[in-house]
Amino acid sequence: MNIIKRNGQEVSFDINKIAVAISKANKEVPLVEQFSPQQVMEIAEGVAQSCRQSHTAMHVESIQDLVEEEIMRAGGFSIAKKYITYRYKHELMRKANSTDRQILSLLECSNEEVKQENSNKNSTV
């Protein structure tokens, strides 16, 4: 079973990455609200089962949506909130990094679109 990463690369599904992500969110909530390690693995297994049933390579974002759904289905609403917040912050960081790269390419004159732009290029005079 494969997944499609954000960059389009197709890689093998790794249930351990799901369990680690859930565990990180789990550690961010009060002890009384935390899942046991067994519950974390059950949620990860539920996500893996859903992925297997799709019979196609799933995009990482879709898998993360499944993780959220499974956490909430198990009653870990505060854990789901931490997981969602983590995803959102990282999405903002990816967008910021992308914008930074675009600006830097303009400043370094390495942006091909800008280098090709010339008002006299296709002159018919």
Can you give keywords for this protein?
single chain, 125 residues, mainly alpha, three-stranded mixed beta sheet, 5 helices, 3 strands, flat
Could you explain the architecture of this structure?
The structure is a single chain. It is built from 5 helices and 3 strands, in the order ββααβααα. It has a 3-stranded mixed β-sheet. With 125 residues, it is mainly α.
**Largest beta-sheet details:** 3 strands, mixed
The helix fraction, in percent, is 55-70%
Contiguous helical run count: 5
How much strand content do the residues show? 5-15%
- Rounded mean pLDDT is 85
Given helix and strand content, the structural type is mainly alpha
Query: Any idea what the radius of gyration is?
Result: 21 Å
Distance between the termini: 60 Å
Q: What's the overall geometry?
A: flat
Order of SSEs? EEHHEHHH
Strand order of the largest sheet: 2-1-3
Per DSSP E runs of 2 or more residues, the count of β-strands stands at: 3
Q: Can you tell me the residue ranges where pLDDT is under 50 for at least 5 consecutive residues? A: none
Q: What would a concise description of this structure say?
A:
The chain has helices at 15-27, 37-54, 60-73, 77-107, 112-116; strands at 2-4, 10-12, 58-59.
Secondary structure elements and pairings:
Layout: E1 2-4, E2 10-12, H1 15-27, H2 37-54, E3 58-59, H3 60-73, H4 77-107, H5 112-116
Parallel strand pairs: 1-3
Antiparallel strand pairs: 1-2
